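Supplementary Note 3. Input sequence used for the single-chain structure prediction.
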Amino acid sequence: MSGLIWKDLINLKRYAKTFGIFILVYGFLAFTQKDTGFITGVFTIFSAILTMSSYSFDEMSKWDAYALTMPITRKDIVRGKYLLMLLFVLFGSTFSAVFGTLINIAIGSENVFGGMEASFIGAAIVILFYSIILPFITKQGIEKARIILFIVYIVPFAAGYFLKTALKAGSIEIPDQLLQISETAIQYRHLLIPIVLITSLSISYFISSQIYCKKEF
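The predicted structure, written as discrete structure tokens, is reproduced below.
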């Protein structure tokens, strides 16, 4: 299992320079503008994108057909990708939180730890996003699944934008019961988020495993 993850990390080491440039650019902007709000989650997203790049490398090199000749199971291969994604998201969110905190200290911000919760909420969103799309990537491959990636990414943001616009215009009203449910969910978010993530990841992994076990290469 660790060998599968190391294989992907070695393939993706070429992005280290790009990540370094990200750090310099966003660090400079945050320091000069005295605002770390716009960098919250950016490293989480960048790190998570590397997971999709690992799928691209595997497809181009016909890795799956070769991997299946080794003493590893198909479920090991699927599990390796999920663990890789979680490692990237954990690294990205932690780095984003620490980096934002250091910038806040450097600029003398009153809310030094203000970006930490936002960074980890961003990580939760990315994990939920991947829980949805990884079965599609497993089934169709990264190239054919790009339209699914676009839909899963853009639909929630578009729906949120139109809902916000409609609420401001007064064309729709949210029922009181729904507002109460939302407030309760926000109040207990530290309990609900882990439950949702564990459930979604478990279902996603099960579906991906079933797909991969029946797939021909």
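The two ends are 21 Å apart (CA to CA). Residues 74-107 form the longest helix (34 residues).
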